[in-house]
Design a protein that fits this description.
heterodimer; A: about 260 residues; mainly alpha; 2 domains; two-stranded antiparallel ribbon; flat; B: about 290 residues; alpha/beta; Rossmann fold; 6-stranded mixed beta sheet; 4-stranded antiparallel beta sheet; 13 helices
């Protein structure tokens, strides 16, 4: 149950996608997400899907893993589809039963919204699957640097992200341990209706939060005793350097984005 | 026979599978005090989680009173009530607002009546040496580490288990807390006749308390027997990087140097008397020799 969570999972590799500069990858992802919201034709979505598949293949990512990442939003997708189907009005009436009515515009927008959600998640999971958490936060830090002028603590934000990602597996492990301890006292996490199940989570969540806060305290102390004092003027072991191939790929992505948005 | 493990193999299915237990056979009698020692990662914790059905063995069967606990007919909740498991650092599982309510969690899950629950909470608290009236309404989070540990153990004792498994219950306690816990374990075993299974890294504790010691290494039980038997296998224990109890170690070294002492003693006071009397005998022997 807890192993379904795929956030922060990274599949190491040596493909051209893996080796791309994280800053470029983040920018391209942002660009593609923006484009995704401008596409409003079937051909546009088809082309975008094709692009995603091509990237998946060049990065040699296991398709199954990417599809599994879509599971958590399944409910959201279904809900979106139904809401649009029955509530968006416009065009010919396709189907009617009592007060329920499906109109043409509902079918189209429903389909478009669902495609957007799914493609968005697939594209961003390509980013997280091919980029190590460390590279990712480095990239974000670089990209946010210009905003430091306006008082945005870019270094601290990046550090927070790194720490958060680092502790996901630790907390999952902790959760499993507490769950077992409560089960040993007869707790039941698997049966009952939704309210009973939510209530059953209290003995899990309270100790989990307490231990998370305790860990945070200890980590802060450990960092301070090693003289961590914020991100300003910190130098790094691995400087990010743009390669010429990064720039070509970026230009290619911009070109593709413009092309897709014309359809 | 209370508990029986038959040809157990357990594999953790991760990205690369880990064999945690490999061919374990074990029989546990009612009323036994079993000590379990071994390295981190030797499979001790996995083994004890099989005993109350928290883990299902990949291969093999676990029997409780002759019934396979992973079969359809057996209610795991019942097994978990009768086989209490105290995890490492059990105070990390406390969650309720008051001590009494936290201890009542187990009995409540077992579906007992309000009155019975209150009785059990009172009994459990008194067993671990805390006064019911002064502790029941306090928040468990404002207590000292040692008190929290005892509350957590009371939470398991409130289920009145027939078997009590403790995974490193002394870790991180100060000497006083350690001694109190030790006394509690002796009381539970001798007076209440609970079958106790104790995992510990401290050989002294195991040697003093256990009727039978199991030594685990890389998923297998490599040695077992009475403490005196197991701790005579110094070479074998050294091979798997385990120490002898300090007292035994000293007695053995004295024996090697030629002092005639017994080496199956684990209590400090007894060892002191043994060494003193051996020294006396030796000096008498020397004095009686004609020059």
């Amino acid at each position: 149950m807890l192993t379904d969570i795929t956030i922060g999972q990274h599949i190491p590799g040596s493909s051209i996608i893996h080796r791309m500069d994280p800053r470029i990858k983040i920018l391209v992802t942002l660009l593609m997400i923006t484009i995704l919201f401008f596409i409003d034709t079937f051909i546009g979505f088809l082309l975008f899907l094709l692009l995603v598949i091509i990237i998946l293949l060049t990065a040699r990512l296991p398709i199954k893993r990417v599809l599994r990442g879509l599971k958590p939003v399944f409910f959201l997708v279904i809900l979106t589809l139904f809401l649009h189907l029955f509530l968006t009005r416009g065009g010919e009436v396709i189907w009617q039963w009592r007060f329920l009515r499906i109109e043409e515009a509902g079918v189209f927008t429903g389909f478009f919204m669902v495609s957007r959600i799914l493609l968005l998640i697939m594209f961003t999971s390509i980013l997280t699957l091919t980029t190590s958490p460390l590279e990712l936060t480095d990239g974000i830090e670089y990209l946010l640097k210009p905003l430091a002028r306006f008082g945005l603590p870019a270094g601290e934000l990046a550090m927070m992200m790194t720490i958060a990602l680092r502790f996901i597996p630790t907390l999952l492990e902790e959760a499993e341990k507490i769950m077992k301890a409560q089960k040993a006292r007869g707790a039941d996490f698997e049966s009952g209706n939704i309210i009973q199940r939510a209530k059953a989570l209290v003995p899990l969540l309270v100790p989990l939060f307490i231990s998370a806060f305790r860990r945070a305290d200890e980590l802060a102390l450990a960092m301070e005793s090693r003289c961590y004092r914020g991100g300003t003027n910190r130098t790094r072991l691995h400087e990010l350097k743009l390669k010429s191939s990064d720039i070509y790929l970026f230009l290619l992505a911009v070109g593709l984005a413009v092309a897709i948005s014309f359809f | 026979m209370l508990i029986e493990l038959k040809d157990i193999r357990h594999i953790y299915q991760l990205d690369d599978p880990v064999v945690a237990l490999d061919g374990v056979n074990l029989e546990i009698e009612r009323g036994e005090f079993l000590g379990l020692i071994g390295h981190t990662g030797s499979g001790k914790s996995t083994l004890v989680q099989l005993l109350n059905g928290l883990l299902k063995p990949s291969e093999g069967q676990v029997f409780f009173e002759g019934r396979d606990i992973n079969s359809q007919e057996v209610e795991l909740k019942e097994i978990r009530r009768r086989v209490g498991l105290v995890f490492q650092y059990p105070e990390h599982q406390l969650f309720e607002e008051t001590v009494a309510r936290d201890i009542a969690f187990g009995p409540k899950n077992a579906g007992l009546s309000e009155e019975e629950i209150e009785n059990r909470v009172r009994e459990a608290l008194e067993l671990v040496g805390l006064d019911y009236e002064s502790f029941k309404d306090r928040s468990p989070f404002n207590l000292s580490g040692g008190q929290q540990r005892r509350i957590a153990i009371a939470g398991v004792l409130a289920l009145k288990p027939e078997v009590l498994i403790l995974d490193e219950p002394m870790a991180g306690l100060d000497p006083a807390g350690r001694r109190k816990l030790l006394e509690l374990l002796i009381h539970l075993h001798r007076e209440l006749e609970i079958t106790v299974i104790l995992i510990s890294h401290r050989m002294e504790e195991i040697a003093r308390l256990a009727d039978r010691v199991l030594v685990m290494d890389r998923g297998k039980i490599v040695l077992q027997g009475r403490p005196a038997e197991v701790f005579t296998e110094r070479e074998r224990l050294k091979e798997i990087d385990l120490d002898l109890p300090v007292v035994t170690d000293i007695l053995k070294k004295l024996e090697e140097k030629g002092l005639k002492v017994r080496t199956d003693i684990f209590a400090l006071e007894e060892a002191r008397d043994e060494i003193l009397s051996a020294l006396e005998k030796q000096s008498q022997f020397r004095e009686s020799r004609p020059c």
